[in-house]
Structure formats: C-alpha cells, structure tokens
Design the sequence.
C-alpha cells in the first residue's frame, strides 16, 4: 500500500510540474570519471520533459553550446587544453527554469616534455613578414567554426603514416605548448582526411605553409600544416580516407612532416584521443 501511495504522489508531483511548466527533467552524463590535459569532455544531456529553450555549458572561462545528437539527446564537447589547472574544475550547466547545476570535473596532472627548435636563417625570416598577424587571425577565427550537424562517424584515423617526431602538449621555446602532433615522413607522402567533414580553408600561409582546415561539425575542426601541395578546395566535402594533400616542409618547418591538430571550439586538444575514443 505504501509503495502505491509513493507512486501516486510521484505522479501528482510530476503532473503539477508538467502543467505549471516550472521544471524540466534533465539528466547529465559525462564520458569519463576523470580527465587529463588534452582530453575531450563530453557532456550528454537527456531531457525527459521537453523544452525548446537552449541549455548552455560554462567551462574553463568559456560558454559552450549544447547541440543535438539524435533520439532526444543533446551534447556539448568541451576542450581540456594542455595548460589547464589540474584539480577540481567547475562546470556549470544552465538549464531553463532551473538554477544552474554545478559539477566538479577532476583533471589529473600530466607532465609534458620540453624541446627547443632551431630554424635556419631563411626560415626565421618568416617571423617578420607583415601578413603574419592577419593570417594568424584567419586561422583562429576559422578554427572557431561551429556547424550544428555532426559530420564525423566513429573513431578518427591517422591522416598519414610515419614517425611521431613531436607530440601534443610539448613545451616549446617558440610557443606555449605544441598544439598538435608532428608526423615525420618522406616528402610527397599522401595525407588523408581522418573523418568526414567539409574543407573550410585550403590556402598557402607564411608560417604554416600550405594549410588545410576541415570542419567536422559541432565545433570540431582539424588542421594540417606544411603540406607540399593541396588536393582539396574550400567548400569541398571529404570522406574518411579521402586525400587532401601531400607532406612537405613549407612554412616554418625544418624537415618534411605533417603537423596535425584537432580543435574543440577553437581550443587545441590531443588528436590521438580521437583515434582511441569514439565521440
């Protein structure tokens, strides 16, 4: 009898809030119990009682959208960059008609190696070209592209074969931390798209050399620097495994290699995580 009474009270309680429209039943799920710098935090939001008002995430000083992934679910992908402070980091989820939900996300410390790079004189002269700042802004703005539809399917693949000559997060004399991985291999080795997406930049730049940026949807972009040649154009749809260019040493590079980076809402994360894990 007591069990039946509890059910009835629950139904009355649910009915009251449905009619009054003052609350929305929302469940929040994370892809891991703890994270390391370079990881990607997936925040899945399932709404049992519908609302059309947007839910927002606030994380590491930024505001991030929650986008649809099908079957009544939505998701925010959040970057955990190499320079994040380890410990309990606050995530706020703003839900309409509710107070903000606060979650503490554990980020464990990770030690990254250091390396110094010496460029020949003809390469260091590239630093002083007047177009550099404008080109840098072009890259930063392009990497912040957010299209609502998820283009990628399944895990990513490596864009080329070769040796990892530098990994994500390395502290460099030329930058705060290395925002991707370097794959050293023979010049003119083919470079492939690691997953489905739309090319949103394919051009030659001073420091980055021949460059391709692919929008994979929902704030996920990949970048390819120092190519010897381009095999795609801006606006072109590429499938997983499609050729996008060839390895080179254009721009600020000491030897033939591919710099491959993966960005979440304009923040660099470790692209190798996306090869091991499915988002």
Sequence:
């Amino acid at each position: 009898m007591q069990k039946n009474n509890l059910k009835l009270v629950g139904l009355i309680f649910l009915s009251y809030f449905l009619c009054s429209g003052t609350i929305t039943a929302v469940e929040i799920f994370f892809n891991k119990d703890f994270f390391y710098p370079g990881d990607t935090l997936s925040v899945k939001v399932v709404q049992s009682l519908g609302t059309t008002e947007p839910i927002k995430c606030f994380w590491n000083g930024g505001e991030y959208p929650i986008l649809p992934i099908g079957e009544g679910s939505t998701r925010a992908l959040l970057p955990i960059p190499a320079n994040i402070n380890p410990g309990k980091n606050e995530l706020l989820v703003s839900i309409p008609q509710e107070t903000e939900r606060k979650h503490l996300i554990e980020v464990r410390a990770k030690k990254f190696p250091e390396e110094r790079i010496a460029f020949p004189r003809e390469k260091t002269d590239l630093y002083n070209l007047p177009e550099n700042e404008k080109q840098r802004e072009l890259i930063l703005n392009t990497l912040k592209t957010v299209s609502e539809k998820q283009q990628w399917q399944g895990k990513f693949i490596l864009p080329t074969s070769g040796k990892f000559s530098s990994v994500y997060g390395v502290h460099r004399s030329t930058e705060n931390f290395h925002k991707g991985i370097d794959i050293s291999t023979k010049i003119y080795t083919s470079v492939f798209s690691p997953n489905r997406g739309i090319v949103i930049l394919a051009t030659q730049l001073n420091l980055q050399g021949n460059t391709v940026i692919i929008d994979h949807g929902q704030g996920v972009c990949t970048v390819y620097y120092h190519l010897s040649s381009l095999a795609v154009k801006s606006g072109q749809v590429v499938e997983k495994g499609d050729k996008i260019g060839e390895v080179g040493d254009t721009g600020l590079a000491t030897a033939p290699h591919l710099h491959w980076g993966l960005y979440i809402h304009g923040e660099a994360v470790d692209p190798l995580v996306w090869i091991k894990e499915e988002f």
Remarks:
- The chain has two domains: 2-107, 114-276.
- The chain has a mean pLDDT of 89.
